[in-house]
Amino acid sequence: MTELLIKGGTVYTPEGPREVDVHVTDGVIANVGPSLVASAAEVVNATGRYVLPGGVDVHVHSRDPGFPEKEDFASLTEAAAAGGVTVVVDMPNTVPAVDSAGVLESKAALAHSKARVDFGLWGLVRSSSTSKDLEEMAAAGAVGFKAYLAYSFSLSRKQVLYSPGVDDPDLEPPADYGTLARLASEIARLGLPLAIHAEDPAVLSSFRRPVLTYEDLLESRPPEAEAVAIAAAAAVARDAGAHLHIAHLSSALGLRAAEDAMRIGTNLTLETCPQFLLLTADDFDHAGAHMKMLPPIRSAADRDALLDGLMRGVITLVSTDHAPHTDDEKAQPFVDAPAGSPGVQTLYLSCLQIAKDAGDVWLAPRWVSEAPARFIGAEQSKGAIAPGFDADIVVVDPNARTHVTPGEMRSRQRHGALEGKEFDFAIEQVYLRGERVGAGAKARGRMVRPALVMR
Ligand SMILES: [Zn+2]
Predict the structure, then answer these.
(1) Structural domain boundaries of the chain?
(2) How far, in Å, is the centroid of ligand 1 from the Cα of 399?
(3) Ligand 1 centroid from CA 59, angstroms
(4) What is the CA(191)–ligand 1 centre distance, in A?
(5) Which architecture does CATH list for 54-382?
(6) What is the chain's mean pLDDT, rounded?
(7) pLDDT tens digits for 19-68?
(8) How far apart are CA 408 and CA 82, in angstroms?
(9) Residues within 5 Å of ion ligand 1 by Cβ?
């Protein structure tokens, strides 16, 4: 039996911040209260520190299996641990794509052999997916399903590809609104979220152009594509009673479409990402291709609308869309550099900073831990410092600063969109189920499965 006693910190509890101690027994929080005593415990002095529930990033790309030169579950979860994220939820567009229970189970075994923190897995919705495919993935532990509107599926490579307008018999057409309509009632029955990459293919097709500059990127991926996709998918989801989730919300127009859908009763959740809250297109001058991603980082008005949506509680969770490549790939000319940036390591720090700047630092654990834990159906074990919960705990020093530099990054890609940022916080200690996770930590990660399937 291992025991841990974290004393003297300001603990973020489900009732808000409290000056209390936290007693952990065998990886589970046993007690939270003032002046706790446990003679056999290892004592952690957290005086002057914040004691926060571990982060849950519901949108990461491990690249594993498929592209180990970009990232794998070991490097992903080392980066996560370094940033106070104790659960990563991996998107299904690894190779082979996670489109069946069998692939999901193989990926779970692979992740289990390498993961330093806990993990969950998304399943893929293809245009050819059946209700049975989804039911079996749910039974295998998928946290939900992701549909990439506008992204085809290579039958030979078992890979999700962005390849608009290509007439190739190897490419299965993207999942579309018809696919969602066909599967929405099954998804509602399974009680799992349906996440979409919300860019409408028809809008994208009208705005297609060579993407030589950042302006081209913005023009090729207009906010109308996001708004139309949200409105259309919401119409389908609402009728079936399915829970629709919008991944990486990036625009004011998209937010407005989502709010319209919520107002008429759609079960809709929104996630946005630190890069959309901290950067604008103007940052391209110094960030360059490191901030090339899809959807793109847009205007100051978009950033402000997203911040406002977060403060009003319309956007409830912040994830990263952590999507590393190799530094060599990202150093290519803008037109060739692949889209995506690492982000999991800076999620918690970014959100603490955004929340502090907005006047209430305690919003950060809600966006990064409480809300995403509930979202993945883990609200009884993750996302809170309370008796009975897993002791996934992050000790943060609110009087130390963190400068985002390549040398500190644990992902394979050392450079990223937020390079150079400074945060008024430092992650000091991270515990996964009561044990410290630091550099060179063992692969102790376990799969997190939704507690309630088939309601
Ligand atoms: Zn993504």
Answers:
(1) 54-382
(2) 33
(3) 6
(4) 22
(5) Alpha-Beta Barrel (3.20)
(6) 96
(7) 999 999 999 999 999 999 988 889 999 999 999 999 999 999 999 999 99
(8) 9
(9) 321
